[in-house]
Amino acid sequence: MHRVPLHRPAILLTGFDPFGGDTENPSWLIAQALQGQHVAGHTVLAAQLPTVFGASLQHLRALVDLHQPAITLCLGQAGGRGALSLERVGININDARIADNQGAQPIDTPVVPGGPAAYFSSLPIKAMARAAQRAGVPCEVSQTAGTFVCNHVLYGLMHLLASGAGPAGARGGFMHVPWMPEQGAPHLPLRDMVRGVHAALWAAALTPHDLVLGAGATH
Ligand code: PCA
What number of other Cβ atoms are within 10 A of residue 212's Cβ? Predict the structure, then answer.
């Protein structure tokens, strides 16, 4: 007898609460807008992470344990960037230029003491960038997620998955998003960012690995 799965596999899509004096964080508004969407046989589950070293990762771990997502994409705001940016790598360092939402400002501490220097995202970042671009939304691959809470969450997510959390074959990664028009420039309209993230999630679900395309690949 065949077992019919009762639930579609989950895509966990997280955003952060506002930080650093902002009153909104587009990363959370985008995640909320996509809550419950069906993407290539998956269901999107949106959750908010606190912009806090440590607590953000405890929260993320609980979400991964509970929902066993096949794909986890964490979103964060990067003021000053003009395009959606898919992060390639998380590094094992916390080096905060401003305090987090609980007043902590770690300088040159490891995310995971004794952990590897870095983890690559396991999402198909080139395919995802192309999909968002085809949907008409500026999107690029980024080589640094910084050294604040977003990098902390990317590194921590990849460490979790490398340590066996989540279902077999679970993949994860991080996307930074620009400000919304009311926050400053450069910026993108929220509805465009939602469309771009949606397109990128389709590509993530349908593309097991980035293909090496050689010349002409999206950078
Ligand atoms: N952006 C911050 C942390 C929370 C967020 O949305 C960052 O880029 O580290």
Answer: 7
CB 84 within 8 A of CB 132: yes
CATH number of 10-218: 3.40.630.20
State which amino acid sits at residue 115: G
Closest CA to 122 of 85, 165, 78, 73: 73
Ligand 1 pocket mutation, candidates 13, 14, 16, criterion most atoms within 8 A of CB: 16
Select the more confidently predicted residue: 181 or 7: 181
* DSSP 8-state code for residue 36: T
Give the Å distance between the CA of 110 and the centre of ligand 1.
Answer: 17
The pLDDT of residue 216: 45
Specify the residue with its C-alpha closest to ligand 1, atom 9: 150
- Residue-wise pLDDT for 15-49, tens only, equals 999 999 999 999 999 999 999 999 999 999 999 99
For the chain, the structural domain boundaries read 10-218
- Going by the DSSP 8-state scheme, the letter that residue 138 receives in this structure is -
pLDDT tens across 101-152, in order?
999 999 999 999 999 999 999 999 999 999 999 999 999 999 999 999 999 9
Q: How far is CA 127 from CA 187, 199, 217, in A?
A: 23, 10, 9
Which atom of ligand 1 has the smallest separation from the CA of 76?
6
Q: Is 198 in the active site?
A: no
Band (pLDDT 50/70/90 cuts) for residue 214 is: very low
Q: Is the CB of 53 under 6 A from ligand 1?
A: no
